[in-house]
Amino acid sequence: CFIGPMRVALVVTAILLLLIVPESSGLSSLKVSQSATTSNNAGGGGGLPLASISTKQPAAIDGAEWASLAPFCGDDGENRGFVGDVGRMTILCGTLLDTDERVVGIQKEDRPETDSGLSSLSIYPESMARIPPNVKDDIAISTLVASLSGIYTCSDQDRVVVVGGGDFACFCARGLAVASSSSTKKNKKVWLVCQDGKPAQRLPPSVEVLSPSMSGDLLEQGFCDYLGSFDALVDTLSDEGRRAENALEYMDEDDLIARGGSGVVPLLEARHGCKRYISTLTASQRIVRDNGLLFGPKQAEEFFVNSFKQAGRRQRSGNAFRAPKGMGKVLEELLEAGVTYDLRGQSPRNAPAIYRGWNLKKFWELATWPRDAAGGANVRFGLPVLDDLNVLEREASSTGRLMEEEDEEEEGGAKPQVNPFVKEIVGVRGLQKDVIDAGEDCVLFLSAKFCRTCKVMNPAYTRMARISTEAANSSKRINEKLVYAKTEASGRLGKELGKALDVDSVPTFVMFRKGKVYGSPLSITKLPSKKLDLAIQYLMEGREWDINAFRENDDENGKKQPRRSKIF
User: Fold this and answer.
1) Which residues contact 81 (CB under 8 A, 6 or more apart)?
2) pLDDT tens for residues 305-341?
3) Is the pLDDT of residue 9 over 60?
4) CA torsion sign, 385 to 387 to 392 to 398?
5) CA-based angle 55:56:57, to the nearest 5?
6) Distance of alpha carbon 334 from alpha carbon 131, whole angstroms
7) pTM score, whole prediction
8) What DSSP line would sit under 239-250, residue for residue?
9) Which domains are assigned to the chain?
10) CA–CA distance from 337 to each of 167, 169, 177, 208, 464 (Å)?
């Protein structure tokens, strides 16, 4: 007769123990509670029940980081996890009911209509990751929070660029190198871009480190132009898409591209095929950046506390955080590979949850990053920039043409050949592939569609190329054959090439010996030209460049020259 009351007492005791599992705002003070046993139907509603809980920790993601992650959350698009400007969650560490394995995951929140008055003791199945024996609860929780935006969102992409050189950026790069879907494992490529190419941590060989400015064989290039094409960019320093400004409304990726802030986001897609821009900038980092080190930190702390409370009210009304699909698999890969992150000390001790706060090193890295002077916007060097205020409109109306032009440049650097004697060169990459890498002896004619003088010279240049080619073929001196090439110096690709060769007007000729620039650009406005003929003779005979000799043979000395056209 006493068995029934004893069972009731045991169940009540178990429930009380579960309710007093400690909640800590700082990971440094996390404590492991005594295991508390739950019943087999704990959680319910699709949750994964836990047999015991060792740590329970509130956490939050905000700012552009949350705006980047939110579209990945939710069940089949339902609510998409978008519940305001803070993603609020509770993370549990414990053991599984059936296997007694040690796991970490996001607590499944009960809906109001099914809430029994007690917190659910289950986690979202999609968020579950097994914890290796050598990883502590607080590190597993930190890694879960830190990996959501910077790693999970791009784990399915083949070619990913991470911008930033701090500890968090290094964590993202290392994580992206090991966490991938089955379709990306073989082709995975990760680059980390930081100032001076010196990241805060030593990175594995699978991560290539770049600087904002990369030295090619021809010129200094921004890292985006140096890489050419990539699938995704994780920005740990700033928010070029201004995602956080729109955090109270749901926008899909097309909306975010259309409202691309500085113009960098749509240019990344148009010029480099980058269809996924992820910003990990938190609200605290943005506030400190905008308000300075004196007033920013206090304002950031107050903003987080207020936003977290508002998110809690929305959560109780049914707008609970939805775990992103497949995040547990990615997290488990990180933990098994030893790629972890420690959030301790990054949020105030009295904060209601752990979160990534502002960081002084990151603040200075963004402030000291070199800026691009090519356009009117204040854009970090290496990212694509608008040449003028009308460029974006023109590119938006002709995205197909631009992508076709980029495809031509990627595939071979040349337009379809219509002149059998003069090779067409498209942009810096075309010159790199067809002349520099090929080690050619070459005469390059830089012209422009709007240049009348260039149009007059075109037939004479083709005649020069034909005579030279036929002479080389008839004498069987193929190894001494000179390549006659021509490039369009107008437009974005042409201007980039002009800058690389230090040419600001056309018509101009540039010589190459075995793929290297030979001498200096020659301004010639009439063909045939004694100056050009002598320069070609010096080139083919292997003689040193002699600018004085070329000046003495200048056909245009003392004569009125045809008009030249500026390309800048």
Assistant:
1) 69, 70, 71, 72, 73, 74, 87, 321, 322, 324
2) 777 777 666 555 445 677 889 999 999 999 999 999 9
3) no
4) negative
5) 115
6) 10
7) 0.65
8) -TT-GGGGTTS-
9) 61-86+137-364 (no CATH), 411-566 (3.40.30.10)
10) 17, 17, 10, 19, 62
